[in-house]
Amino acid sequence: MTGPLIFFFILAGLSILFSLLVIFQRNVVHSALYLVATLFLIAVLFLTLDAPMVGILQILVYAGAIMVLFLFVIMLLNPGILERRRVSWWGVGSLAALLLIFEFIPLVSNSPRPMADHNRASESFGSPELLAQSIFNDFVLPFEIASVLLLVAIIGAVVLAKREV
């Protein structure tokens, strides 16, 4: 197997692992943190596909703003911790940190991008102009529906939190 293919399989394996941890984690705060790690791995995938704008937006919007909103709602609802026993996750966290560092080494080094040579996309792929044109011309209705759904979810979470007080 070639280097880019191995890099992709490591990236895909970590994404699947963290996605499963999001689902099966009993503590909602830990689940949200695993979701942040999953979103970062997806951003790395976008960066390897030579779509830096989409990768940066993935980090800023989803791993940043949306996850802050999720954590704010989680803390506002103050859910009880479901797990009965205390488990130390230092080993898993350290391994995940080492693997994430290993994933970012090719991106910050001066070596060519691992996936850049295979299935080359058009030059405008992932550019701000193409992204804006796509969102505001082709996908206006789904974009607005998603924003209204997020607003309804936020209002619902606040109403549920205020009702229990």
Overall SS class: mainly alpha
Q: By CATH's scheme, which homologous superfamily of the largest domain applies?
A: NADH-ubiquinone/plastoquinone oxidoreductase chain 6, subunit NuoJ
**Count of domain modules:** 2
What is the string of helix and strand elements? HHHHHH
CATH class designation of the largest domain: Mainly Alpha
Helix fraction bin: over 70%
Mean pLDDT: 77
Rounded to the nearest angstrom, the radius of gyration is: 19 Å
Count every beta strand, where a strand is a DSSP E run of 2 or more residues.
Answer: 0
Per DSSP, what share of the residues sits in E-state strands of 2 or more residues? under 5%
Q: Which fold name fills CATH's third level, the topology of the largest domain?
A: Four Helix Bundle (Hemerythrin (Met), subunit A)
Helical run tally: 6
Short précis:
By secondary structure, this protein is mainly alpha-helical.
Give a structural overview.
It is a single chain. With 165 residues, this protein is an all-alpha fold. It folds into 2 domains: 117 residues, Up-down Bundle (Four Helix Bundle (Hemerythrin (Met), subunit A)), CATH 1.20.120.1200; 39 residues. Helix 1 runs antiparallel to helix 2, helix 2 runs antiparallel to helix 3 and helix 2 runs parallel beside helix 4. It is flat and about 55 Å long.
List keywords for this structure.
165 residues; mainly alpha; Four Helix Bundle (Hemerythrin (Met), subunit A); 2 domains; flat
SSE inventory with pairings:
Layout: H1 3-24, H2 28-48, H3 52-77, H4 90-108, H5 128-138, H6 140-164
